Structures are given as structure tokens and as C-alpha cells.
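User: Protein folding is very new to me. Would you mind checking the protein record under this note? It all follows right here:
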Amino acid sequence: MKSFYFALLLFLFLCPTLPAQVKGEGVPYIKNYSLKEYQASPQNWAVVQDHRGIMYFGNNYGVLEFDGNHWRKLGLPNRSTVHSLAVNKEGRVYVGGQDEFGYLQPNESGVMAYVSLKSLIRDDDKTFADVWNIFTKDDEVFFCTVSGVYHFDGDSIQVYKTPYDPTGLPFYVQGRLLVPVPGQGIFELKEERLSLIQGSETISEYNIASILPYPGGKALIITEEQGIFIYDGYNGFSPSNWPVEDFLIKNKVNTATALTEGYAIGTILNGLVVIDMDGRPTQHLNSSKGLQNSTVRSIYQDHKENLWLALNYGIDYVEVNSPFKVFNGRLGLPGTGYASLVNQSTLYLGTSDGLFYKPIADDENPLNPLPLKRVENTEGQVYNLQQIGGKIILSHHNGPFEIVVNKAVRLSEHRGAWLV
């Protein structure tokens, strides 16, 4: 097998501190789900998980249900695309389509089925195109379109028309429903009417991809191509000037979500980037690192704090919360894996093609990672790596070697060494 995976925790028995030392190295395990598996459109738009752990995906052909083993498709009455999903505190899944929205509930057979809420809408308001976002608050649900917000209180639906048509996508953050309006600013739903937030005019010309909570009652305004702004909760909007900004501006933001620690941002051109609370990148994944596609439509952090990605082509599961990380040919490591070792601030990986190394740096930028390099004189099969008496000993098909300043120095003329 020419390609391989290094699970770094396998080395834990030899180096108990390894996970902390290589925290930023490698990529998480990624499981790709292709359209051949879920038997629907390649394009996906939304992801949620209910209280039972069942996953749901918004797809061009409807809602996809996945229990970990089996896929099932639930179509809408008008067979429209499902662009949005949300789950309330009871675990009910709400669904937004085109001129259609509702929720899922078990039928007489106990199987999830779609229930439309459109009959509760006044005739004058029944045409609204796509429901792009859904937000829940206690027993309330907000179905968000570019022409208005449809507020479901559990019994009836009230429509809040936007002051300008069309608007940007509404967002619910810090207990506030915010509606960007191109050329005007950001409006807030207060006392059943939309009012302009003073100061938001400064970013009115920018397309807003997401608005997310930020500590101190603040919010992040994440634009598609103009970077990130921090909203102070009143009337102040200031550029974040975060390290990730150049990457986001270059690759066009499509979606974003708040994580337990930090944020995950999906782009149109270059996959997923995870950042900390100060905007420093901590992980970057794209099609060259294991994703099926580099256009990320939606991101969801599940109950185990791992990520599900709705892609322009396929669905991917990313184990970001696992202590295991992967090194493979996509990261510049050829051959089949046999050995690994951490010595001070250097990571060594031995394969059927030789011994490779790279420095470990806490501040390494995953958008521009340090490359793996081959240790001189180690071409060929590596069998083992050991640290003995403060020295790094390599067992190689050409014999035993000591690694000195990233160069292999022969210890014996014997050919072939498996263990010292």
C-alpha cells in the first residue's frame, strides 16, 4: 500500500507527552460521504444533529437522514432544495426549502416525516423563495428569507417584512435578530419592527457571510471578501485585523460557525479554516488535504465536538476533537508508515521511503506549514526509531544508524537492522 496513515498516538507508549507536542501537526481523520453512498444530489447546504444523535443534511433533493449506518431521503411537498435546517431545545428539526418550510416528526410507523407549516401563512405572504437560515429561541422559530422573517411561535406565524428588498441573510446572535441590508446597514428586530443599528452604515456595502457571538456581548461580522469586523453591541464596528484575514479575503467566505473554542470558517475557493478567539489559524483543510471539495456550504459541530461539512460536492466528517492526527502522501510524506518519534522540538516519521523530519513550532501557521524533509542518507526502508542514552537510533534496511543533526551516521557495516 503506497499511501498510509500515521496515527500519532500509537507512539504514546514511547513518548507520553507526544499529543501536546504535536498538537498542530498533521490533519484530523476525515470520512468522505459521496453521492454514491447517500444517493442524492452532490450539492449540500445545511447540517444539524438531533437529540438522539441522528444527522440531517439539506440537499438539492430534500432532507437526508443518516443514523451512522443508513441513509434515507425525505422530500418536500414541492420537491424543492433544502437550504436550511435547525434544531430546537427539544430536538425537533426544522426545515427550510423554496416557498416551503416546516419540521420533522415521527409518523404512525415511528419514521421521521416532513410536516409543512405553510398553511399557517397568510396568502399574501406565501411566496418567499428560499429560506436561507433558521434560528430557534426557546419555543420560537425564525425562518429567514431575503424578503422577510417568518416568526413561528408554536401556534401561528407572523411575518416581518424587510424595509428593503432584497436583504442579506438574517442572523440570530446574542439574543438579537440582525438583518443586513445592502447599501443601508444592519437592522435589528425590536418590538416587532426592523430598526437600523446606527453606525452599521460603515459596512453597508459589504456582503455579510455570517454574524457570530464574540465574548463580552460583542459579535463578529464576517464578510465575504472584506475581512472580519467586531461589533461592540451598540454602534461600533471596527476591523479585527486578525492574522486570518488575508486568507479569507483571497478565498471568499461562504459560511462560518462558532465552536466550543474558536470558530470554523468555510470558503468558496480553499476549504475550511479553524481559528482561535484571536483570529489565529489552527487548522486548514481543503481538497488537497482530504476534503472531497474545497467549497464549504455549511459547518456543524456535533455532540462530540467533531465537524460535519456540507460541501458543494459531498458530505465530510472531520474528527477535530480526536487525539489522533494523520500524516500521508497528501502532506508530503511518501511510502508506508513504520515508526515515529518526537525528540525535543523535532518530529521524525519513518516510512518505506526513508526517515523524514520537521520542526515542531507552537506558532506554526497551518496556512503555510513547514515542509517535511528527508534525513540525509536514509533513502529506503525504515523499520524502527529508538531513543537510547540521549541518542536517536535508526533501524534501517541498510543497517543501524545514529541521527546526528538530521543526518544518518552509520554505526555498523551490517546490512539490515530491525531493533537495537
